[in-house]
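Section 5: illustrative case.
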């Protein structure tokens, strides 16, 4: 029997952790008891979960409560999930991560949504030797944005990541954009942050190789409130495609100013913003026809291995609870699928063993199968990003809806429409 340094067996630690279908999560380890066990040597497993619930990127945290409820029910009483709000702020992210590590002594950390939240949490875990799994940051912005070099094949010992990257964006754009006739001139707004710098370094050259002309006015600072110079440049250069990776408030400012100043590209392609209905609805009529990326949708033909919930049931359940489906549902639940698989694979109280186990996991999730060891490096699994567009809702309950128009990164996901020209 595998026994931790505390003298507590892995079987004791995870007794009662179960799947939604009441199948013990660790049945493979043999003869696990129920969550009602009175074994006094059992120790609660603690999972930290950090995401932006408030602040500039709060849209990512909108479905947290729903996903956390599913995860807590599936894990049972022997696993405690401690969720914290990063407030979309790097300093706050580092603070709550260190509090979870040093104060709450979590066994495993999960974190999601933008480098402003994910990178500081990952850095804190790497420094403290706490296993961490993260998602929803382009993997280059996570890997290289934290200091790894291109020739590093495993830069980190305790932190692991799954997310799309520049290659997936390139595939999406070069399959999606030709659906509308353009002059192939792309005006870009790539900020001076981890996302923007990674995209500028890697995506720009790939798009040029594919025959696109990149018009880049230069990196701008997050929080900029006047984009007149950039808009004038895009108009003068006749950029019929626009692409940006901003924090949501910056895009709202830019796009309203573009409308006022007469810049209307044939394709408006956004990332990091325009992901959720609330962000698009806030733009009013000028939000309709914006193109975006999808890292999950209810039509994904996959399910959660922890809960047994299919992607369709995940989206339907969220809508039945009162809100339109949000693509963050998929990867957030996937984090807990990975956590469950890791806790099954190693003693949760042995942090080195748990971290090592994550590096060889093969997990079924709502966003697809995650296999570490087959990605661009040992720390990363590269996942699909598909192309879609916001249109006026066909469901009377909602104002807009997102339809998939391109699936080059995962042909198993059905396409529902063809990209149409932005009409603003």
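Designed sequence:
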């Amino acid at each position: 029997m595998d026994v931790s340094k505390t003298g507590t067996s892995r079987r004791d630690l995870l007794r009662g952790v179960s799947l939604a279908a009441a199948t013990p999560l660790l049945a493979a380890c043999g003869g696990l008891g129920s969550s009602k066990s009175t074994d006094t040597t059992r120790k609660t497993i603690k999972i930290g979960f950090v995401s932006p619930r408030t602040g500039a990127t709060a849209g990512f945290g909108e479905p947290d409560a729903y996903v956390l409820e599913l995860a807590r029910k599936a894990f049972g009483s022997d696993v405690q999930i401690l969720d914290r709000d990063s407030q979309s702020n790097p300093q706050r992210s580092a603070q709550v991560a260190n509090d979870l590590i040093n104060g709450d002594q979590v066994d495993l950390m999960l974190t999601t949504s933008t480098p402003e939240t994910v990178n500081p949490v990952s850095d804190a875990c790497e420094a403290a030797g706490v296993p961490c799994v993260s998602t929803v940051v382009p993997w280059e912005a996570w890997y290289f944005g934290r200091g790894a070099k291109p020739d590093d094949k495993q830069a980190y010992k305790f932190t692991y990541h799954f997310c799309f990257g520049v290659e997936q964006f390139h595939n999406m754009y070069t399959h999606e954009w030709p659906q509308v006739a353009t002059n192939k001139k792309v005006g870009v707004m790539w900020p001076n942050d981890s996302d923007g710098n990674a995209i500028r370094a890697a995506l720009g050259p790939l798009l040029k190789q594919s025959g696109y002309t990149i018009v880049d006015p230069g990196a701008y600072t997050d929080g900029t409130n006047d984009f007149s110079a950039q808009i004038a440049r895009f108009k003068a250069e006749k950029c019929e495609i626009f692409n940006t990776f901003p924090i949501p408030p910056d895009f709202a400012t830019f796009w309203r100013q573009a409308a006022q100043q007469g810049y209307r590209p044939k394709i408006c392609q956004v990332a990091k913003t325009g992901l959720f209905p609330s962000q698009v609805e806030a733009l009013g009529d000028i939000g309709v026809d914006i193109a975006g990326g999808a890292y999950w949708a209810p039509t994904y033909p996959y399910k959660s291995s922890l809960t047994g919930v299919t992607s369709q049931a995940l989206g339907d359940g969220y809508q039945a609870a009162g809100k339109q489906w949000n693509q963050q549902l998929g990867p957030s639940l996937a984090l807990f699928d990975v956590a469950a698989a890791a806790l099954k694979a190693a003693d949760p109280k042995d942090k080195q063993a748990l971290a090592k186990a994550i590096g060889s996991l093969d997990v079924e999730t709502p966003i697809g199968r995650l296999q570490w060891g087959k990605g661009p490096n040992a720390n990363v699994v590269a996942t699909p990003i598909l192309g879609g567009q916001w249109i006026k809702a066909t469901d009377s309950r909602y104002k807009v809806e997102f339809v998939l128009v391109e699936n080059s990164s995962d042909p198993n996901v059905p396409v529902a429409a063809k990209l149409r020209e932005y009409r603003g």
